[in-house]
Amino acid sequence: MPLVVAAVREDDLLRYAQVYEAAFSPGSGPAISAVITPPSARTPEHEAAAVQETLARAQKRFTSSTVFFRKVTDTDTNETIAFARWEIYHEERTWDQVMEDTKQSPPPKGVNEKAWNAIFGYIQDARREFMGTRPHCLLGILMADPAHQGRGAGAMLLKDGTQKADQDSLECQLEASRAGQKLYERFGFKVVKEQIFHLQDYGGEGDDSNCVMIRPARSSQISADI
Fold it and tell me: What is the CATH number of domain 3-224?
């Protein structure tokens, strides 16, 4: 079943939202996902509303000149199974622009606001701390439909995006769950910060972690050889 990488069209965004909600659901996403929206709160009505809220955020980003959505499609079934969202900043930004670009989305209705603010506040703080105003490439999201994980779609999207960054000799940044860290290391990303979340602080159990990872700028030839 050949997989191909392509640009996302606007009519792909509903599928993007559906994959997002599936990929970050309890049992599929990081442990903190089950604290942000406990399984007991995931009614059919909540799931439908969450998809629409994710769709609205994606539609807003889709019109930005710095945001690039990519997808992997199974050409045998014509099903899109994975997505990446990259933000590419070719020019130096002002701090006002950085603050606008890293503005945290308000918690959707029905989520654990304390947990939402903890994880997304950490992410936005990390994006200001490590790249600041300088040019870089940010991997905002990499996700696959849980039914298609393990098929190599994530690696295809990483190779596609890092090659684009290397064409312009841009550093890359991302935030990684425990599960994704080894894949990112294969593409040259290194951990520069780890954040531990004590889930009991948000009504859950155990701990979860997330890492900030940076990939230095490199030539396009090195990227092509990965």
Answer: 3.40.630.30
